[in-house]
Amino acid sequence: MTYRPEPPHRHGDVDRVGVLLVNLGTPSEPTPSALRRYLAEFLSDPRVVEIPRILWLPILYGIVLSARPAKSAAKYATIWTPEGSPLAVWSDRQAVGLSQALRARGHQVQVRVAMRYGEPSVARGLDALRAEGATRVLVLPLYPQYASATTGSVSDAVMKWSAGARRLPEFRFVNEYHDDPGYIGALAERVRAHWHAHGRGERLLLSFHGVPHRTLVLGDPYHCQCHKTARLLRERLGLEPEHVVVTFQSRFGNAKWLEPYTEPTLRRLAAEGLRRVDVMCPGFVSDCLETLEEINEEAREAFLSCGGERFEYIECLNDQPAWIDALAAVAERHMAGWNTRAQTDLAQASATRERATALGATI
């Protein structure tokens, strides 16, 4: 096997630390061809669709990739911005904010963004960090709750890249932070700010991304972690249990997924006489298709069409300062023990080399 070339090694160089901030991904543009490439990569991941390959791949490349790309492209077109995909825009801003926050805390680390599907890929992000001399890498997925289909898949991509590396960086992985006080505090601050500007609804509905129900039976902690996030947020806001509703969105296929489902729940609440609902998606830290189109457009229409009068969407954490600070705290905690004061170390290493040269040492 041929391994990838490595940056030139110099004796005395200090360890450098990199942070790979990973989000789910996005097509490069809202067109059927771009969506076909994106969906082919996404839906062929065995972590995402746990159906035997011999059965699933003919369906994917036959039926799904014939009909779905055009429909998905039309949905993406409704949320696309002059800067590009909202998820990519917010991920880039989060990376910049994280780099600045870590620098303010005294850490000299390189932060790179990667997408599990699409570009920049996990492999491209790791290549960039290695080219910059990173020998230690913290992989930080933008998924607060752990799921095999999300966080687990990021680990797969890192391991695939590692199989072709001659010199492996020292890796650390952040698996989840669903109950992190900073993350919960940032969510609460976002809700309070929205209520301050727009008033408060009769219910706060927290919609998380759905996964097949069988993953819960097989040991995936996602369902429990979503409910814990919701409980901690409710307690931080000082709300009674009956004022908060937890649902799951984005079903795919005919199998049973985690319940209750978001859209049917909104229809039921409206039919029961609920006039106003506030909706937030705590599992998404970046606004994207699932929040801006599926929730703020489709779910809104479902609620209003069944008699609801007012639907308030509370935006994701995005680049909110409290969230960036919480993200920096998570990164800092997981980098504990790594020397991230690179500038000091570089000066010390340079002095060591100069002393060795002066003594005529040969390394």
UniProtKB/TrEMBL annotation:
Pathway: Porphyrin-containing compound metabolism; protoheme biosynthesis; protoheme from protoporphyrin-IX: step 1/1
Transmembrane segments: none
Record field: catalytic activity: heme b + 2 H(+) = protoporphyrin IX + Fe(2+); Fe-coproporphyrin III + 2 H(+) = coproporphyrin III + Fe(2+)
Amino-acid positions noted as binding Fe(2+) in the UniProt annotation, renumbered to this chain: H209, E290
This protein's UniProt keywords: Cytoplasm, Heme biosynthesis, Iron, Lyase, Metal-binding, Porphyrin biosynthesis
Enzyme Commission designation: 4.98.1.1
Places the protein is found: Cytoplasm
Highest taxon in the source lineage: Bacteria
Pfam hit, one: Ferrochelatase
Gene3D superfamilies in alphabetical order: 3.40.50.1400
GO terms assigned for molecular function: lyase activity
Keyword Acetylation included in the entry's annotation: no
PANTHER family per record: FERROCHELATASE (PTHR11108), FERROCHELATASE, MITOCHONDRIAL (PTHR11108:SF1)
Function (record text): Catalyzes the ferrous insertion into protoporphyrin IX.
The family this protein is said to belong to: Belongs to the ferrochelatase family.
Protein name: Ferrochelatase
